[in-house]
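Holo prediction — zinc ion.
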Amino acid sequence: MQVVDPQPQPIASTIADPLHIWSGLAGAGQARAWVEHHLAAARSAVAELLAVSGQRTLEDTLVPYDRARWHLGMAGSQSGVMFMVHPLAEVRDAAQQLSQVIGAESVALSLNREVYQALEALHASLTADASAADAATLYYLDRTLLSYRLSGVDKDEATRERIRALADRMTALGMSFSRTVQDDVRKIPVEDPDELLGLPEDYLARHGVQPVAGSGSGSGAVPHLAAAAPVTLTTDPPEMAPVMSYAASPQLRRRMYLAYNDRAFPANRQVLLDLLAAREEMATLLGFRSWADLATVDQMMGSAAKMREFLNEVEVAARETAQREFAELEAFVRERDPGALPLTLSDARFWEEQFRRSRFDFDSQSVRPYFPYDQVEAGILSTAGRLFGVEFAAAPDAVVWAPGVKAFDVIDDAAGSATHGQTIGRIYLDMHPREGKSKWFSECSLVSGVLGRQLPEASLVCNFPQPDGSDPGLMLYSDVVTCFHEFGHLMHEVLGGRQRWAGQSGISTEGDFVEVPSQMLEEFFEDPELVRAFARHYQTGEPIPYDVFARMVRASAHGRALATLTQVMYATYSLETHDRPAATLDLDALLRAGYDRFSRYEFVEGNRMYAAFTHLVGYTSNYYTYLFDKVMALEFFSEFDVRNLIESPTALRYRREVLEPGGSKPARELVRAFLGREASLSALKSWISREFE
Ligand SMILES: [Zn+2]
């Protein structure tokens, strides 16, 4: 049988909405009105769909259904962003409540049996006539009907009522969990300033700490520190991370580690158990053995059993190299400071840093002068522009939500592209910490693009150091890599934002494919020419020297096997909490068992990281996504010519075959199209063991 794949037809009904972006809103009342506008638009689209009688068509059924999803999706994602970034607490509070309202409305749509029956009737009429719809449309309809069945739409009324109540409860518990984590910032008093020895000079200066006069100057040679006033550190990541990597005092590191890994405890222990119980009941009602089975059935992974198999394979691939890495580290510590053995989890980052310095003659602090924030931002925009064939132009008409947030229009610059020279989307960069702002690094969709109707818009929400007066906001190499990672999501959102259906736009592939484009970009930053194009010393303008760069790359390759096992451990925790009866779950024992199995470091009593493990809310059982996607990202990267990363035709082929389809095809097809085969673990294995090659 010949499969006909006609060109998408123009759609009569318009989707563009002047209120598509919230960023001009000032107060809580306006935020509520904005959300209400989109809820009303979604309801009216659903009513339009249900009013149809007789034979259903794409125009009268899928078009309004997709419009309802566009309004709900956008209102949901933007109220999430408001909650993360709005400068006013009243708007953040309102946004949190609104997210719940929108969540409930989305659940109601996903359980609306009449809508389901309408889509099923449309599906029947389309499959009877092979020329009536293109492959992407049929795929959209298939995925949508599957998600309806996974929501329990075909269950009896009492069961659906219970499902609705459980879904609302899961939303509320998830928000409460995240909110508690965001608000719980612990303080660590430092009575003896000498405990801060080893920390970078700008970190000390920010806390009013100086070397004692006459005790020598320069890095590493200062025996004493003094503070004008008592020093208090917090568990915010920019304060926490340097302590774990650089503070010479094991006592300070331990106090920081315990404070950080006790955040949101005890409050979130019960919240998490209640959440897991609700998910378990939901999975049972829907006919699944566990939540982990339910959450993977519509993913590339397929089932909890396959996930366990995958994690075992990765563990086997990393174990031997991890033993070797740890044995080297222990030997190093035995030589330097035998009293520091056995190494605990609160010593890990510090000693790994010391080992890297010694083995590779590389100090991660020493390259920060080559990475002042503004220069990195410009470098990332220009690298991404060359790689993906786009240009970024400042968007002076864009309304931003806080001073310092930047907006750019994305202009297509790829040779032979149908949209060459045209604006294809807009991005926002909200890159620095601010009072009340979320402390994390993420990419957020704002508006889903629809072909011929609406350009995609998306934002980065990050916490990189803020350049300020004489402080150029120097970044670590790892920060630069993180920044490019998040940028990978942004490009996926924009370049995948030209779909006929909003529900297939941007990052709407299976959830366990979404970290592939971002993780692949991380690999580009091992190329010296690419990085030297923007990594210039902020005082002298000299590019980062080749030998320093080579040592930096070698040093960052150290410890990959240990880090991979840590990821396997988190993924296993995320799987097991969702694959066992919640009533008998012991969160602490499970955590301990994970560390005993996967970590070489001694467990630190009092570590209750699960109470702030926010991935359990968003990713639920599917933390494996990071590893699974790393495997594919490395395979994708191996297709590029390392001597000509940017200008090679592979980059454009990648844009066309992986990013531009958005969610209009199963991710396995994207993989096969780009690799010409299925992904295997071979690129991961060589990436893990590269330091010993
Ligand atoms: Zn990511």
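READOUT: The longest helix spans residues 304-336.
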